[in-house]
């Protein structure tokens, strides 16, 4: 294909049929050429044999003498459409221009290949097309009403000697341009113009052919857009040799000018404001110049929005073209005159406020007696505002109960007074609001407590919702004109301004209630002066001197200020001179008595003296504490911790303030022995699995005692750290009766605790593990029998801790794993040898074929 490639010059296939007097454009193009992209063209003409030069794109002297005038006037010219295409344009072609036209292109190719010119035959025929209006009259004027029908006619005929087809188009002048309405094409097809497709499908516009080559445009229902000038545009077409259609000429004639009188629907009244219970009167006027017989259909609509699409509108009343009105009790529709229709709404209500629309349709009779709707219009909306009849009344708010202390009740009464102009269909409800006092210029916000709906349904606000649901805040209606707010237990957060709003509700025709008026009251301030609670507690020792075994007695007197009807709870505490292991802070809670006079033992753990302490209420503000059979271990500072309680909401008690009394000291002067405790171990460093021995040794100083007069409670503790920075862990204890108690352990080691002498106690840790390390110490509680035979408990004595270190025995740790490893290696080695021997003996043995040799000895020569 590339070898055969060459220049190609193309012109249309002939003959080209053109009408005399029209403009002719003959295209010529070139392709597959070399050289510059812009090519030059030469045109020549021949009637018979010789060609005459007409015009060239590159040589101005190319034109022959007989064509110079026409080329100079522009009657013949070249029009370039692209770099490789031009058109020969002949304006007002004549029969003398009939002949052959040749298009040539000068060569710009490296080699001469292809064709460099092409010819086309042009045939000029006479003008046989005639277009005229109806009966050959000039354009007429038609004045129509919206919805009328009209018809326009034009005549088109051709006497061309060639076989041509006509293309008829009806057009309307829209502004300065003509717009297609409907066409009958040269192929016999109907083609509606842009925007007329729906009307053509519905049959509103038609194009019919009649006798004498007439073409009739029919419009069955004229609209306002159909006004304007109408013309009939006719073009003549001929089919070429290649089967394509070519338009050879076009003519038009203006037929008529049509004016459409628009039908308008107007509500005579503009925006309306009426008072509730009055009547609303609206008139709908239909503007039309229609003189024939017609009937109007009228519909009245109501909508809450001014949307004229009536998508959410409500149909109020309608009157059809037979003057039949739909039924309604309070709304009537009447025909005032030929083009006016009146809507009357009696006893209007507030809910009648909104937008009113009037929709009208014009109906005309047909020849068969039926009615046909020709036009429909909707008026602009009219705004109607119905002013409610507001009742006249005042609102008064007063406080029947005001608090003087916290948790006192508060009651507010909201009363309706001076009621005037009220009817039976008026109802009152209340809303309660709270306003907090803010310092400075801060904005004060109102908070809704609760409100009542038209049916007296209580709607809660965000403030105090939980308290209202719990019944701490109560809303009620005492009478027809009085509403009440009661706070059962007023707190400091309730201080502020309160006001109420009385709402008047009006009942409408549909028995619904609509709020018509709100009247607020003046505010009432709820406030009481608050002072800090004051509580004073004084402790007094009743017996200044006593010895061990006697009864200790002290009283606590309480006084308070600014507390409403207080009650007191009392707690007796003791601060021992030596720290008790169960109370690391040194303070022991002994016994308490709450505000309801219920006594409770707190941290009193002496089982032998369960009834040895008593706390009782002597008076409302005086309490007495007794401790029987005191012991030396009871020495310390004793105090009364008092809490004042005031009545709270819901019958509960609220803690007001705490007070602490002065200390009362119990101090025993004794001349008995002094006990010391120490911890000793022969081997503080041991290996895992060994036994650790720890000795707790008690020594005495001063007055000697018989062993039977001494007894000890011994407890062993451990701190699992190098420093004493963790909580001690109780390991085991031995009481003075010889009962051993062990704490629960997690490891595999075990403990034993025994008394090996009157003053020595041994703790053994069997099978020590690494977690048994740490500081170990003992705490001893001595018991001494007095001369009267009573056992007295001495203060606890804590020994200095000793650090127990647990090491790992490397030999023992690796002995068993090493033996197991050697044994497994030996077994695996023997097994491997056995497998190898068996494999070589039976599985992998090969038979070797050897050459058999004769084993004969040589004979000696003598033997031979």
Describe this structure in words.
By secondary structure, this protein is mainly β. The protein has 6 domains: 8-125, Immunoglobulin-like (Sandwich); 129-261, Immunoglobulin-like (Sandwich); 264-387, Sandwich (Immunoglobulin-like); 392-526, Sandwich (Immunoglobulin-like); 534-666, Immunoglobulins (Immunoglobulin-like); 674-810, Sandwich (Immunoglobulin-like), CATH 2.60.40. It is built from 4 helices and 61 strands. Strands 51, 53, 54, 55, 58, 59, 60 and 61 form an 8-stranded mixed beta sheet that branches. It has a 6-stranded mixed beta sheet with strand order 11-19-18-13-14-15, with no helix packed on it. Strands 21, 23, 24, 27, 28 and 29 form a 6-stranded mixed beta sheet that branches. The longest helix has 34 residues, at 810-843. It is elongated and about 170 Å long. The mean pLDDT is 84. The chain crosses the membrane at residues 816-837. One of its GO terms (cellular component) is membrane. InterPro entries: Ig-like_dom, Ig-like_dom_sf, Ig-like_fold, Ig_sub, Ig_V-set, IgSF_V-set/TM_domain.
């Amino acid at each position: 294909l590339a070898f055969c490639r060459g220049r190609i010059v193309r012109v249309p296939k002939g003959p080209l049929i053109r009408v005399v007097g029209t403009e002719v454009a003959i295209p010529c193009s070139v392709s597959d050429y070399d050289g510059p992209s812009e090519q030059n063209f030469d045109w020549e003409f021949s009637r018979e044999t010789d060609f005459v030069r007409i015009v060239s794109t590159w040589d101005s002297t190319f034109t022959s003498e007989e064509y110079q005038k026409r080329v100079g006037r522009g009657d013949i010219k070249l029009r370039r459409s692209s770099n490789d295409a031009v058109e020969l344009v002949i304006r007002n072609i004549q029969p003398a221009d009939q002949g052959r036209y040749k298009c040539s292109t000068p060569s710009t190719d490296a080699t001469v290949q292809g064709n460099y010119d092409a010819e086309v035959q042009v045939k000029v025929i006479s003008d046989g097309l005639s277009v005229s209006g109806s009966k050959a009259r000039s354009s007429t004027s038609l004045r129509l009403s919206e919805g009328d029908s009209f018809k326009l006619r034009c005549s088109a005929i051709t006497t061309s000697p060639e076989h041509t087809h006509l293309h008829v188009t009806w057009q309307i002048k829209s502004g300065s341009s003509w717009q297609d309405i409907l066409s009958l094409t040269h192929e016999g097809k109907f083609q509606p113009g842009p925007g007329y497709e729906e009307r053509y499908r519905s049959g509103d516009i038609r194009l019919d052919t009649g006798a004498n080559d007439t073409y009739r445009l029919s419009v069955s229902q004229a609209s306002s857009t159909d006004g304007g000038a109408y013309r009939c545009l006719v073009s003549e077409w001929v089919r070429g040799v290649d089967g394509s259609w070519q338009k050879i000429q076009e003519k038009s004639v203006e037929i008529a000018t049509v004016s459409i009188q628009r039908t308008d629907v107007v509500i005579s009244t503009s925006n309306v404001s009426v008072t509730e219970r009055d009547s609303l009167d609206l008139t709908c006027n239909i503007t039309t110049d229609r003189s024939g017989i017609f009937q109007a259909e009228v519909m009245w609509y109501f909508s809450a929005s001014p949307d004229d699409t009536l998508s959410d509108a409500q149909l109020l009343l309608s009157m059809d073209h037979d003057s039949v009105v739909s039924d309604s009790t309070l709304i009537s529709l009447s025909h005032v005159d030929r083009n006016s229709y009146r809507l009357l709404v009696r006893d209007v209500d507030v809910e009648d406020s909104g937008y009113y629309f009037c929709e009208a349709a014009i109906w005309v009779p047909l020849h068969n007696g039926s009615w046909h709707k020709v036009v429909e219009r909707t008026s602009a909306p009219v705004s109607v505002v119905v002013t409610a009849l507001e009742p006249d009344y005042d609102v008064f708010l007063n406080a029947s109960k005001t608090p003087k202390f916290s948790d006192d009740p508060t009651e507010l009464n909201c009363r309706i007074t001076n009621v005037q102009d009220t009817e039976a269909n008026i109802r009152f409800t209340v809303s309660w609001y709270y306003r907090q006092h803010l310092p400075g210029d801060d904005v004060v916000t109102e908070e809704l407590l609760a409100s009542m709906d038209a049916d007296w349904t209580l709607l809660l606000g965000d403030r105090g919702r939980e308290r209202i649901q719990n019944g701490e805040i109560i809303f009620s209606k005492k009478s027809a004109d009085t509403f009440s707010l009661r706070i059962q237990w007023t707190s400091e957060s309730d201080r502020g301004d309160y006001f109420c709003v009385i709402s008047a509700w009006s009942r409408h025709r549909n028995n619904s209630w609509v709020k018509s008026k709100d009247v607020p009251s003046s505010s009432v301030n709820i406030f009481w002066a608050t002072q800090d609670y004051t509580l004073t507690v004084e402790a007094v020792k009743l017996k200044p001197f006593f010895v061990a075994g006697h009864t200790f007695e002290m009283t606590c007197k309480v006084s308070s200020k600014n507390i409403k009807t207080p009650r007191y709870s009392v707690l007796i505490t003791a601060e021992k001179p030596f720290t008790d292991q169960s109370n690391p802070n040194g303070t022991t809670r002994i016994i308490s008595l709450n505000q309801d006079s219920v006594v409770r033992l707190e941290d009193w753990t002496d089982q032998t003296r369960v009834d040895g302490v008593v706390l009782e209420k002597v008076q409302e503000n005086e309490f007495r504490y007794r401790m029987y059979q005191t012991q030396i271990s009871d020495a310390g500072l004793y105090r009364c911790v008092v809490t004042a309680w005031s009545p709270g909401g819901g019958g509960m008690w609220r803690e007001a303030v705490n007070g602490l009394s002065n200390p009362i000291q119990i101090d025993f002067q004794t001349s008995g022995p002094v006990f010391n405790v120490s911890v000793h171990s022969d081997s503080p460093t041991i290996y895992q699995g060994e036994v650790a021995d720890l000795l707790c040794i008690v020594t005495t100083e001063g007055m000697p005692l018989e062993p039977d007069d001494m007894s000890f409670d011994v407890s062993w503790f451990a701190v699992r750290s190098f420093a004493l920075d963790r909580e001690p862990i109780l390991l085991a204890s031995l009481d003075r009766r010889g009962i051993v108690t062990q704490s629960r352990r997690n490891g595999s080691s075990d403990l034993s605790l025994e008394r090996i002498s009157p003053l020595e106690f041994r703790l053994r840790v069997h099978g020590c593990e690494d977690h048994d390390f740490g500081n170990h110490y003992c705490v001893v509680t001595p018991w001494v029998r007095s001369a009267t035979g009573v056992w007295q408990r001495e203060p606890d004595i804590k020994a200095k801790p000793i650090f127990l270190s647990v090491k790992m025995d490397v030999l023992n740790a690796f002995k068993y794993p090493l033996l197991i490893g050697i044994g497994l290696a030996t077994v695996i080695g023997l097994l491997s040898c056995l497998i190898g021997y068996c494999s070589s003996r039976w599985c992998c043995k090969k038979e070797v074929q050897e050459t058999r040799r004769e084993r004969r000895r040589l004979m000696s020569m003598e033997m031979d």
